[in-house]
Amino acid sequence: MARRTNQYFLFVFLFFMLGSTILGLLLINFLALPSDLANIILQFLVFIPMLVIYVKTEKVSVKECFSLRPLNWKNALLCLGIAYCALPFISMIVVLTSPLQPNLVEQAMGELNDSSLFSMLFVIAVQPAVFEELLFRGAALHGYRSLGAKKALLMSALMFAMLHMNLQQALYAFLLGAIFAFMVQRTGSIFASMLPHFLINALNCVAATAQTPQQGVVEELSFTQELLSTGLQCLIFLPFLALLMYLFLRRNPAPAPALPADTDTPKEKIFTASFWIIVAIFIFFGVLPNLYWN
């Protein structure tokens, strides 16, 4: 099962890279659609076929594959709180990697500044929260489930990280991907990851649109100042994060039934040829070019 899932995600990477480029050129240059509308349509055209292909090839139940179960309001609040308290730690990763690579998320937000807040929220927060979670906390967790819950969590987080195609985002995407996968495993609901994913992206989106030119002075902070400031935020938020995680674990003590407990058998080979091709794609197209240009 893991071998087939690696092959599937190799297809996902290739389709994402080639398909999004070709479709983007078609929508914007050939059909002359506004960039807002083109971005919205593009995500539908890229993600939906990949999700349908997984369900059809694996012949699985949509409900079971994507963990389409309700999430009670207490778990929803806990998941949102955990995601919010994790934000300073994401910022710390951005600060630590800033000497190697500029903040690509801020650059991407800047390119969408002419868009309306609604369009930005839909493209940056709503669609990724739905499509990426269905793909990684749905298909990936399902595909790697035969490895056991822990390895399935790590593999889904790794694929999620590498698909971001740059080192900076990959590092914190792996952290978030692991947290999201853990919450889905414990609650058995995909909404346990969709809601916090939306929250994090929406907050970044709102912050980008609310920023004024005068606020650009924060960019003049030295690396040491940014490191100390972000480190202080991490220390402040750490007790709250620990408390929320404790409450979450008390409410959700057992793994979701869709993912079996880790066992010694069967032992599947994780690092197949498809896996190493994905890693090579990530390094040569996602990491090295950004480091070189910086």
UniProtKB/TrEMBL annotation:
<dbReference type="InterPro" id="IPR003675">
    <property type="entry name" value="Rce1/LyrA-like_dom"/>
</dbReference>
<dbReference type="GO" id="GO:0080120">
    <property type="term" value="P:CAAX-box protein maturation"/>
</dbReference>
<dbReference type="Pfam" id="PF02517">
    <property type="entry name" value="Rce1-like"/>
</dbReference>
<feature type="transmembrane region" description="Helical">
    <location>
        <begin position="157"/>
        <end position="184"/>
    </location>
</feature>
<dbReference type="InterPro" id="IPR052710">
    <property type="entry name" value="CAAX_protease"/>
</dbReference>
<feature type="domain" description="CAAX prenyl protease 2/Lysostaphin resistance protein A-like">
    <location>
        <begin position="116"/>
        <end position="203"/>
    </location>
</feature>
<dbReference type="GO" id="GO:0004175">
    <property type="term" value="F:endopeptidase activity"/>
</dbReference>
<feature type="transmembrane region" description="Helical">
    <location>
        <begin position="37"/>
        <end position="55"/>
    </location>
</feature>
<keyword id="KW-1133">Transmembrane helix</keyword>
<keyword id="KW-0812">Transmembrane</keyword>
<protein>
    <recommendedName>
        <fullName>CAAX prenyl protease 2/Lysostaphin resistance protein A-like domain-containing protein</fullName>
    </recommendedName>
</protein>
<feature type="transmembrane region" description="Helical">
    <location>
        <begin position="270"/>
        <end position="293"/>
    </location>
</feature>
<feature type="transmembrane region" description="Helical">
    <location>
        <begin position="76"/>
        <end position="97"/>
    </location>
</feature>
<keyword id="KW-0472">Membrane</keyword>
<feature type="transmembrane region" description="Helical">
    <location>
        <begin position="7"/>
        <end position="31"/>
    </location>
</feature>
<feature type="transmembrane region" description="Helical">
    <location>
        <begin position="227"/>
        <end position="249"/>
    </location>
</feature>
